[in-house]
Amino acid sequence: MGNILLQETAVRVREILGADLDTITIERAVFGLFFSGVKLSDGQGGLCFTPVKDMPQAVCCPSSAKAMPLSGRLKGRSAADYLADLEHDNILRKTLAIAALNALSASCWQRGEAKGYQLRTGEDAFDHVRIPQGGKSVVVGALVPILKKLIAADADFKVLEMDNRTLKGKELEHYAPPEDAWKYIPDADLLVITGVTVLNDTLPGLLEMVKPGAQVIVTGPTASMLPDAFFKRKVTVMGGVLVTKPDEVLDIISEGGSGYHFFGKSAERLIIKNE
Predict the structure, then answer these.
(1) Which run of H or E residues covers position 29?
(2) Are 161 and 106 found together in one domain?
(3) Least buried of 179, 189, 209, 215, by fewest C-beta within 10 Å?
(4) Rounded mean pLDDT of the chain?
C-alpha cells in the first residue's frame, strides 16, 4: 500500500502545478549528516531528515555505490522523477524524494495555494502545544523541547522512541518502546509526533489509533509539505521549515549543519494550522 500521506500529497502537488511540474528540475541535491535537501530550478528548496541509522549497508565504497547509484547524476533530473521515488525501497532515494516534495509544496504556496489552513513563519510548533490538564500525552520521538515542557508540568505522558539512548534523566522514566504505541495512543489527548515518521512510513498507522478530538502535532523539517492529507487524518498542526535561501541552506547541511545554523538566516520555522 505504501505511505498514503506521501501518495496523496504528491497527487495534490500535481493538481496544483499541472504541466509546470514537468518543467521543474533539480538544480542541486545534497546529503548532509543531519538533513538532506534539494534546490529546484524555480528557486524553491526543501529538506528531509537524513536516516543515517537506516543505512547499515553503506559502510564501504562498493556497498555505498549500490546504496546511491545515482550519485553524480542527481542534478538536472526532473522533479517529477524524484516524486516517483517516494515509494522506493532505497532509503536515500526516498529521502531526496521527500525533500523534493517539500520544495514543490513551497512552489505551490508561492502560487497562493494555501486554502483551508494558515501558514505562519517564525513560530515554533512546540509553542502551540496545549498540555491537557488531567489528560494523557504521547510524544513520538526524542523531541527534547516538548519533553522538558511535559516534565515541568508534571504531565502524564509516554515517549515512544526507537533508541532510548537519546533520552536522559527524567525522560527515561516516561519511556515506552514503539511497539507499545497501541497501549497509549488511543487514550492520548495530546500527541506530538516527529516528522521522521513520514520518512519511515509509520505515521499513517499511528494516526489510525488517534481518538477523535485529540490534539495532534507533527513537526520537523521532513513534514514541511502540503497538509491536506494530514489534516484529513486528525492532524491539527504541522511544524516544518520554509527554506528562504536554498543555496545557503544546502551549503550548511553539506558541512554537517542543523537547524541551529540556518534558522532565522536562510530558513524559517513554519507552522501550518488547520482552520
Answers:
(1) strand 26-31
(2) no
(3) 179
(4) 91
